[in-house]
Design a protein that fits this description.
The protein is built from 13 helices and seven strands. With 323 residues, the chain is of the alpha/beta class. The protein has two domains: 160 residues, no CATH class; 71 residues, no CATH class. Helix 6 runs antiparallel to helix 7, helix 7 packs antiparallel against helix 8 and helix 8 packs antiparallel against helix 10. The radius of gyration is 27 Å and the shape is elongated.
Length: 323
């Protein structure tokens, strides 16, 4: 996970309110109804996995769950998955991570094998552009499906998937939580208008939160990391509070929008000049050699205009491109 791990999300899920919002807003409601979120306890998820030769630091929490008159502590294993493509090894990875986690609990003497293993709810939080299509149970990777007399002996471990991109903006707005606003920002990508609406909504939610100063700082740090990851051309050094600096952020978005539009127009105009010149050269000199095509692709506006004016009087490509 080292190549895909997002430190901003890691920080978000180091706070119990965001774990609660994740479960209440995006996990099956029957699960959330059983959990006493006042008992949430953070556990350090830091393990070495020999199978995948990677170090991963995922959010691991435990919470008391009561059903049929019995109260038991359940571990929430939240795997943050930031890959552009679907990982079809995920069921195998999640089974391996869960086993490593159980080994960690035994090694640190949190439990003993004879006491039995505590329940684990494996959660994969995915924000890639492609919709998730990998199996959600390791049994689904076994092909062809074994006959019934072998099926009972096959490994089974199912994870719960939260695919951010599957939620519509209407569904996220209905949640009314800070985390749903974060998902809206993720889904906005580089759409400036959608991004501004999502930021305005999340600011309104933060302002109504009793811990608004702390939440504001956490979300502001997350947003700055998110925009840097997207390569947004925005002055982020002056953004210290999303609530207090909302107008400044909106102004930066407007400037970014105008600059992007200007760059797009300039790029389009230059591509048009290159295309027109390439057609004229083809008609006059035939198929262009690679070196001439490279010169066209690397040309400045000034060079392109010079060559367009010169093409009527030269009788060779060498003469056209001469300094």
């Amino acid at each position: 996970m080292a190549n895909h791990h997002d430190t901003g999300y890691k920080e978000l899920f180091s706070y119990p309110e965001f774990v609660q919002q994740l479960i209440e807003g995006f996990a099956p409601p029957e699960l959330a109804a059983l959990m006493d979120f006042a008992t949430l306890k953070d556990h350090n998820g830091n393990y070495i996995t020999p199978l995948f030769e990677e170090r991963f630091e995922d959010a691991v929490w435990s919470v008391e769950v009561t059903w049929e008159g019995t109260t038991q502590r359940v571990y929430l294993y939240i795997l943050l998955e930031f890959q552009s493509r679907v990982d079809y090894r995920m069921p195998l990875r999640m089974m391996h991570y869960t086993v490593c986690f159980y080994e960690h609990l035994i090694k640190t003497k949190v439990i003993t094998p004879n006491e039995g293993l505590p329940p684990v709810l494996p959660i994969v939080l995915y924000n890639g552009s492609q919709r998730w299509s990998a199996p959600q149970d390791v049994y689904g990777m076994i092909a062809p499906e074994p006959p019934s007399f072998l099926g009972v002996y096959q490994p089974r471990l199912r994870y719960y998937l939260i695919d951010e991109g599957r939620y519509t903006e209407e569904e996220l707005v209905a949640q009314g939580s800070v985390l749903s606003g974060v998902f809206s920002i993720e889904n906005a990508k580089l759409s400036k208008e959608t991004l501004q609406r999502a930021v305005d909504r999340i600011v309104a939610i933060i302002q109504a939160d009793p811990n608004k100063e702390r939440i504001d700082k956490v979300i502001t740090r997350w947003l700055k990391r998110h925009l840097r990851r997207l390569g947004a051309n925005i002055d982020l050094e002056r953004l210290n509070s999303l609530v207090e600096d909302r107008d400044m952020f909106a102004e930066n978005l407007d400037n970014w929008r105008e600059q992007t539009l200007k760059e797009g127009l300039e790029k389009g105009r230059q591509e048009g000049l290159v295309g027109a010149l390439r057609v004229q050269l083809g008609l006059k000199f035939g198929e262009l050699p690679t070196w001439a095509d490279d010169k066209l692709n690397a040309a400045t506006d000034e060079q392109l205009n010079l060559w367009i004016a010169r093409i009527l009087t030269v009788d060779s490509l060498e003469a056209l491109f001469a300094d």
